[in-house]
Amino acid sequence: MGKGLVDLRSPQGFAAETTSAAAILASAHMGFGLSTTQVCSGSVIGVGAGRKLATVRWGKARRMVYGWLLTLPATALFGAIAAAVALTGPVGVLIVLVALLAGAGAIYAISRRTPVTHVNVNDSPDVTVSFGRTSTSTTPESPAAACAATQQTITLSGTATATTPVETATPPNTGASAVITSTGPAASTTAPTVVTPLTVGPSARQVGVRETGARTPADDTIPGPASPGGQQ
Amino acid sequence: MTINWGALALVAMATVVAAVSIVGLFSLGVAAVTAHQRSRGGAAAWSLTLVAGYACIAAAGLIAVYGLYLMVPQLH
Fold first, then answer.
1. Is the pTM value of this prediction over 0.80?
2. Does A102 map to a domain?
């Protein structure tokens, strides 16, 4: 309900659960019981509709309402049939029992086609179920996929920033004459521009620490090229 | 079949009042405590914001306890 019907976050879940508890306890105290499922569904839908970007899947909510409307006459019909058969005698009771077991077994067998386990219980409905009218505009990805994507971008940025400082660090060591043409403040401005992207990821930060450690002798050589510049 | 409309209206009103007050007070308390922690940088120092935040959370808890008191007939 918190993922398939509405995209719930913790504050909305808190509000929905509080509302459901208040409604259920108050109605039970006044002497009439409400359906827990209906109360929770209503509060969850209301909480989702109250958000600024409403992510209530109204198609699914409508299907739930249809299911509730269909449940009452369907169960009445099957109850009447079962009672009529069972009242004919012990053979009728046996027939009802066999039919009940067969129906339950069939439902269980159908449910085993796509079993819900601890692996896929939190999957996004856009991944597992493909309806026609599910909107993939807001949060179609599962949290695990989003986390993996951010980790991938972090590692990519880390390698990118790890390669570039090495390339920028090598010219002061190899080509000394090229550095000598640039003045001292220019070299000092390139140093922060190299260091600042290194605070992106943890791996890049380690590279940055080693890079700053390797740059301090490079900074020591920056006054050094001034003296080779004097030699030229 | 008679429907006790008065009880239905009472339940609806109690639900709205309880949910709005509890959720609102608790959210206010969480916001106040968060504002205190952000302003002090996580330092353990008391301020009026922190006291008000904890008071809001305690008030929300008291409302819930009062609801339980109303429901349990042995308490009154």
1. no
2. yes
